[in-house]
Amino acid sequence: MSEIKELKARIDGIRETQKITNAMYLISSSKLRHAKEDWSRTEPYFRMIRGEIKRIFRTVGDIDSPYFYPSPDDHLTNGTYAYLVITADKGLAGAYNHNVIKETVRMLHEHSDAKLFVVGEYGRHYCQYHNIPIEQNFIYTAQNPTLHRAREISDALLGLFNENKLKKIYVIYTDYARRGEPVVCSTRILPFHHMQFDTPTDEKLVNTPFSFVPSVEKVLENMVSSYVTGFIYSALTDSFCCEQNARMVAMDAANRNAQKILEELSVHYHRMRQGEITQEITEISAGAKYHKIHEEKRTGGELQ
After folding, report:
1. Fewer Cβ neighbours under 10 Å: the N or C end of the chain?
2. Contact at 8 Å (CB) between 237 and 149?
3. 3-state DSSP assignment of residue 214
4. Pairing outcome for strands 183-190 and 81-86
5. How much is the pLDDT for 173?
6. What is the rounded distance in angstroms from the CA atom of residue 300 to the CA atom of residue 296?
7. Quick one: pLDDT at residue 11?
8. CA-CA distance, 67 to 37, in Å (whole number)?
């Protein structure tokens, strides 16, 4: 009897767990939809920023700016790099966090002179546990990315870059825009080369003369700030969408596994219950038979 009670308690526990995983699946689905809607409303603006930077390069030509390489082959190898690492605040999202951490460790092995700017509690806890130095005053949550938060992060990184404390800025995140499985990317956002920007669709605008006030360098500096903010916001949103998608997949797998276990336990429970009922019926029948025989003997003895 105690074994059946334990089995019944285990079945009830798995059903309660299924309620939690189902709720987490629905919550992640809702967050994913809202994040995609928020990014779709701002993405055209930042896409136009990239196009305008490309147009400046094509109309002006050589520009003396610390934000870009004069040629694709001119790469800085010395100096301090900045790695903006975007992880989640919690687990239960499959290999999402592990893949980002793995790429971060690879980047650190390639260039150890780097400062880590980590978004998300999971990444910060990992670095603290493995004694990897990070910027302690740089604490941002990975939940519900906003443009305001992206602008704060951009200002912090650009401030160090403009003070010549950083030579390169990389963003390590999970790209959701690609078709198929999400991919972890390590993208250099500063300095950049103008060839990485999209070409304006209207070629007439490229040949139109412009006047830049106070100077083309100042105009480019303001546009780069918006470009970096837009890229970071895109990376935050992409990573957040990938996290929710990974959590949906993990919760769906957990639900299916729980259902499979429930089916196996239910079969085992019904067999044990049937065996117990059969045993009870057998005991009752045996008791009734014994009582009948005993009664017949007693009655027969009285008649004699």
Report:
1. C
2. no
3. coil
4. unpaired
5. 92
6. 6
7. 84
8. 31
CA gap 68, 36 in Å, rounded: 30
Residue 144's region, left for phi above 0, alpha for psi from -120 to 50, else beta, is left
CB 69 within 8 Å of CB 75: yes
Q: What is the pLDDT of residue 119?
A: 93
> pLDDT tens digit string along 86-110?
999 888 888 889 999 999 999 999 8
Q: What is the pLDDT of residue 198?
A: 54
Distance CA 145, CA 86 (A): 11
Residues of the chain with pLDDT under 50: 201, 204, 303
Residue 61: its pLDDT value, please? 64
86, 174 Cβ separation under 8 angstroms: yes
Q: What pLDDT was estimated at residue 75?
A: 59
The DSSP bridge partners found for residue 170 are: 83, 188
Q: Rounded to 5 degrees, what angle do the CA atoms 217, 221, 224 make?
A: 135
> Which pLDDT belongs to residue 8?
83
277: CB partners within 8 A, 6+ apart: none
At 214, phi and psi to the nearest 5? -80, -25
Instruction: List all residues 6 or more positions away from 134 whose beta carbon is below 8 Å from its beta carbon.
Output: 116, 117, 118, 124, 127, 128
Phi, psi of 204 (to 5 degrees): -65, -35
Residue 72 pLDDT: 52
Strand spans (E) along 24-154:
81-86, 114-119
The CB-side HSE value for 250 (13 A sphere, CA atoms) comes to 16
Q: What is the mean pLDDT of the chain?
A: 81
